UniProtKB/TrEMBL annotation:
Prenyltransferase alpha-alpha toroid domain boundaries: 4-300
Species per Swiss-Prot/TrEMBL record: Nelumbo nucifera
Lineage top rank: taxon: Eukaryota
GO molecular function: metal ion binding; Rab geranylgeranyltransferase activity
Enzyme class per UniProt: transferase
Protein name per UniProt: Geranylgeranyl transferase type-2 subunit beta
Catalysis performed (reactions): geranylgeranyl diphosphate + L-cysteinyl-[protein] = S-geranylgeranyl-L-cysteinyl-[protein] + diphosphate
Alphabetical list of InterPro entries matching this protein: PGGT1B-like, Prenyltrans, Ptb1, Terpenoid_cyclase/PrenylTrfase
Pfam families named among the record's database cross-references: Prenyltrans (PF00432)
Gene3D superfamilies hit by this protein: 1.50.10.20
Keywords for this protein: Metal-binding, Prenyltransferase, Repeat, Transferase, Zinc
Cofactor(s) annotated in UniProt: Zn(2+)
Length: 328
């Protein structure tokens, strides 16, 4: 089997963070907060987080926060729940959650919950189960799940379950691996996994593995490294990960590396980007690839960070009972 090019991937991520004006960074401009989360989490999993300037990142993150409490994707961009979770995750990586006004931030997230329990992404009102996951994950990391109606939030996610065992973005929406991760993650964090038909969903998920060993997101689609994360994390949360061929999947991910300049692509020989580099390394972490730090399948943060939040300096919190780690 190929080996993971740890040094080269770390240098690749650092180089992307430093480039400000080439094509990829212009396209990524409004997604910079997500990019920071993907890149920095990858560095932490590789054991290389110390190569970035922590104070510089933290002050940039905080300069993206709005009066409402939400975060934009970059300085001067509108706030959205997507970037807000990334901001919280980045601060968590650096053990800097204490710089946040936690009540203000959690009130912003709570304000996005709708009457039926669903969540909007921002003031414009688009509803998606991705936003349910984000709200639940974020508030759990901040120990503020009590700010929302958890029961209604869970019921809404369950209402998006399909006959194939999967989940869609809204009730009746087609099952998709990314959406399944969000729904299963939301249910795991709130201690509600009993709503999942584990065998049925496990079967749908393990059918995503194709001949090359890679995973696709829906039937008849090409395999893509990013699904290593969505599918694997879901299989782990429902305890069915032994239903796929893990070694073949690890080989597929390793074959997607740029062995010269670092970075991981969606499929072998395609161009690399930070998004797929993160999902490739996170996928290998879930596969227990030697030398990588472990990642939590529900919170999408390194396990040591999640443990620090729930069992570290902070006092005991009500969410501990529903933390997925405690269910194992
Ligand atoms: Zn992809």
């Amino acid at each position: 089997m190929e080996k993971l090019e740890v040094e080269k991937h770390a240098q690749y991520i650092l180089s992307v963070e430093k480039r400000k004006d080439d094509f990829e960074s212009v396209v990524m401009e409004h997604l910079r907060m997500n990019g920071a989360y993907w890149g920095l989490t990858t560095l932490d999993l590789l054991g290389k987080l110390e190569i970035v300037d922590k104070d510089e990142v933290v002050s940039w993150v905080m300069s993206c926060q709005h009066e409402s409490g939400g975060f934009g994707g970059n300085v001067g961009h509108d706030p959205h729940i997507l970037y807000t979770l990334s901001a919280v995750q980045v601060l968590a990586l650096f053990d800097k959650l204490d710089v946040l006004d936690i009540d203000k931030l959690s009130n912003y997230i709570a304000s996005l919950q709708n009457e039926d329990g669903s969540f909007s992404g921002d003031m414009w009102g688009e509803v998606d189960t991705r936003f349910s996951y984000i709200a639940i994950c974020c508030l759990s990391l901040l120990h503020r799940l009590d700010k929302i109606n958890v029961e209604k939030a869970v019921n809404y996610v369950v209402s998006c379950k399909n006959l194939d065992g999967g989940f869609g973005s809204i009730p009746g929406g087609e099952s998709h691996a990314g959406q399944i991760f969000c729904c299963v993650g939301a249910l795991a964090i709130t201690g509600s996994l009993h709503h999942v038909d584990k065998d049925l969903l496990g079967w749908w998920l393990c059918e995503r593995q194709v001949k090359s060993g890679g995973l696709n997101g829906r039937p008849e689609k090409l395999p893509d490294v990013c699904y290593s994360w969505w599918v694997l994390s879901s299989l782990i949360m429902i305890d069915r990960v032994h239903w796929i061929d893990k070694e073949k999947l690890a080989r597929f991910i390793l074959d997607c590396q740029d062995k010269e300049n670092g970075g991981i692509s969606d499929r072998p020989d395609d161009a690399v980007d930070v998004f797929h580099t993160y999902f490739g390394v996170a996928g290998l972490s879930l596969l227990e690839y030697p030398g990588l730090k472990a990642i939590d399948p529900a919170y999408a943060l390194p396990v040591h960070v999640v443990n620090r939040i729930f069992f570290g300096q902070m006092k005991t919190c009500p969410t501990q009972q529903s933390s997925p780690r405690l269910q194992h």
